[in-house]
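Q: My collaborator sent me two sequences in one message, no labels, and asked for predicted structures for both. Can we handle them in order? The first one she listed is below.
A: Yes, handling them in the order given. First sequence, followed by its structure tokens:
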Amino acid sequence: MKQTPGALGYVELIYAIQNKMLYADLKNAAGEFVKPALESVTAALATADVPDDFRFSMTNAPGKEAYPIAGATWLLVYRDQKEVAKGKKLVEFLKWALTKGEAMANALDYAALPPALQQRVMRRIDEIKY
């Protein structure tokens, strides 16, 4: 994209920032032009319709500050862990990632989960058995 004049594409925000690529403000569902930024992605997450199984799309999420094209990273984890030691370490890691790790998200140029979604994910982690 960067090498082809006039080309359009979609890349991860951190990739665009690190590679000094141009990116666009987009008109969202509220009719506002929003800059792609960590805060506008978190705003989209905060208003996205996230069902209990966490399968969702954040395309054109409602909200004045929500960036209209945003994505998330998912982990597929078995609720019933077969090995106690590995299951325990997995739960410890997931809880760390959602608390102390989440506190580092912005410094690493990743959008943080909004608190309400973070709490929902933590409750789901608490359901993992080992």
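Q: And the one she listed second?
A: Here it is, processed independently of the first:
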Amino acid sequence: MTPPPPRPLSLMAYRAAAGLASPLARPLLEARARRGKEDPERLGERLGHASAPRPEGPVVWMHGASVGEGVSLLPLIAWLADERPDIGVVVTSGTRASAQLLARRLPTGAIHQYAPIDTPGAVARFLAHWRPGLGVFAESELWPNLILAARGAGVRLALVSARMTEKTARAWRGRPAAARAMLTSFDLVLPQDAATQARLERLGACVSGRLNLKRAGAPLDGDAAELERLKAMIGPREVIVAVSTHAPEEAMIAAAAGRIASGPLAVIAPRHPQRAEEIARSLAGRGVARRSLGELIAPQTGVYLADTLGEIGLLLRLAPFAFVGGGFDPEVGGHNPMEAASLGVGVVSGRQVANHAEVYAEMVAAGAATLAGDEAELTAQLTGLLADAGRREALAAAAAAYGAAQSSQMDAARALIRPLLPAR
């Protein structure tokens, strides 16, 4: 393992400023907790105070900022548990939603903790308690004190499924020494696409291959008994499933369903379930039933609002195609279509999908996805799919074939991560 890179003046100043701000950390976290943005029972974890004992033996630490990143790490966590059961796993994330979801989906023995805030004290406490041999970071959240302190403590580091937008790259290019110090701290860098690879390499990263965890992950689970219960409630009606939606996509989907003569049911799972009250109000008059309240699907139900977490795999199994949200807002940049493709579900989305541009382009070319530019085009596409069984089946079959072709990336990534694992 090479020595840690020298900390440039900009990052030394950042560390000093973070240290001076440390006394404000708890009051700020408590204020966020009052707004529902932090877990009030676990604020200590954010300050680096562990709420669980360290497992005996070597430990691997995995970090994903939020729900998407945390879920994307699950296949790696499952592989590690199978290949090296002697290794303890601690998984960190930064949001309440991710903590709730990971609590249900982590394998037995894996420990979830909230990530420490990026102050020297919190980071030091976290590292001193867990003493990981390897840290695996998913996608794009890079905190300078956390990364450099871990490397300084002898932790091997891997950045997997790395994603960097051009906007973020421009910001880092203004601080080239800081960017190089951060990126050269990683023993392994696996970007998820060609654009990110080029940006990381220009900033000084040594790239070893490619990995998009959101392409290569196992299909999402779905409760078989609950699926049959939902299908029984829906009956013979056609279904439009919409997942990871943002405003105004809920209104667009509901309006499209309302214009289709066959009267399909719109099943809508918002990206942020806490928006459920707002969404229900905006769709008043369309017969909204809310899943979180236990409301049933009746013949007069126009919209089934699936305002719950961790059930995307269940909902995607209701139809041969699904609308994947985030594609009508360039600030969002689209959401991962692979969750649908891995289940053999075709994808419809908007055209503003920069965050997953490469995947969407490949899926469109393969006939596994279709993109709409506006509400009228979206309505036309949904109407056409519901009216043409052959078209629906072709879209789903192409999605299944595309999803199956992505698994080879994971095998290559495991081979690169394996030498970084702590010794037995």
